[in-house]
């Protein structure tokens, strides 16, 4: 079974994080929600208190296939400032494992140097940063370039999440979910 971690912090955009968790679990992926706040409870960008499965410091990331970074502010800023998370992201990028980020979170990947010369999308609040760091910005809800998947924001969260399912569980499973949730594009 494929495994994924979705990271949460105070100020995380809950729809982007939970949409990825929901769709990946429907796709048969073992998903762990991980807080980078040193405690399992986080307060989302819209004031929803949420409990994660694990705290970053208690996790072992060795057998994970995918890391997912939701956006939201200041959630994405908390993720960027977490040195342990940045270390794991660098390792995944070096090992050519999947890393996904949506909304403001692709800015984290840009700052880490992952997007130089790569196609990517993000929320407009981070577009200039991505360009400054060498990304080739696309106007699309989701963009895949190698093992890096980026999403534009809440409006594209379902497309982003279904692409993650397609990558880890196959197109047939993603299409099955689209049909089950009555999603037509």
From TrEMBL:
Biological classification of the source: Bacteria, Bacillati, Bacillota, Clostridia, Lachnospirales
Occurrences of domain DJ-1/PfpI (ranges): 2-166
Protein name: DJ-1 family protein
InterPro entries reported in the protein's UniProt record: Class_I_gatase-like, DJ-1, DJ-1/PfpI, Prot/Nucl_acid_deglycase
Pfam families: DJ-1_PfpI
Top-level taxon of the source organism: Bacteria
